[in-house]
Amino acid sequence: SQTIHQWPATLVQPVGSPLSLECTVEGTSNPNLYWYRQAAGRGLQLLFYSVGIGQISSEVPQNLSASRPQDRQFILSSKKLLLSDSGFYLCAWQRSSGNTIYFGEGSWLTVV
Amino acid sequence: GEDVEQSLFLSVREGDSSVINCTYTDSSSTYLYWYKQEPGAGLQLLTYIFSNMDMKQDQRLTVLLNKKDKHLSLRIADTQTGDSAIYFCAESFSGNTPLVFGKGTRLSVIA
Question: Which has the closest alpha carbon to A8: A60, A76, A55, A92?
C-alpha cells in the first residue's frame, strides 16, 4: 500500500530564517506531488505541483520554492521566511494520470 | 473558469442528519470528492462520485450530484460528535491537473 510522510510536524522559525519541509511517498512510482498551504481558518491554497523529477509548476508567486530531487521526494523551501508564511502545509500525492489525491499529516509552521 | 463554493459553517444536533452543500462551475469535471479534516490533521478522503452518477451511498454517507445545476451534497445520517470537522468539496479533471477545492464547511455537532 502507499504511504505519504512529511516532516517536521511542527516548527517555529524566526523571520528571515530558511525553511525546508520534506515529503516522501512510498509504494508507488512517478506520482504527481503537491504542496498546499492552509492559513488559519482558511481554505487550501495550491502552492506547487510536480508531475516528474525536476518538473515543478508554481501556482502562486512568493518567496517559497519547491524541488523534486528524487521520484518520490518533494521539498518545500524558503531562503528567508516572512510572518505571512505561517500556516499549515500539506503535501499530497496522486497516481500519474490519476484523479484522487491523498494527503500527508501536515506541518505546522509558525514564523515569529 | 474553475470555482467551487461551499457555505463556511453548519451546526447540527447530535443524532440529526447533516447536509453539506457545494456548487461548482466547470461542467468538464470527472470526479467530485468529499474530504474531511479533523483539527490539526491532514485531509482524509471520505468519498467520491464519478460525474456520470447521481447518487452514491456509503454507510452513513450519501452523496448526491445534480450535474444540471452543478450541485453536490454530502448527507451524514445520525451525526455524531466525532463528525465535527471541516469538510472540503473538490472536483477533478482528466489528465495531470490538480484538484480544485472549495474553502471548506466547518461542521459543529452539538451534544
Answer: A76
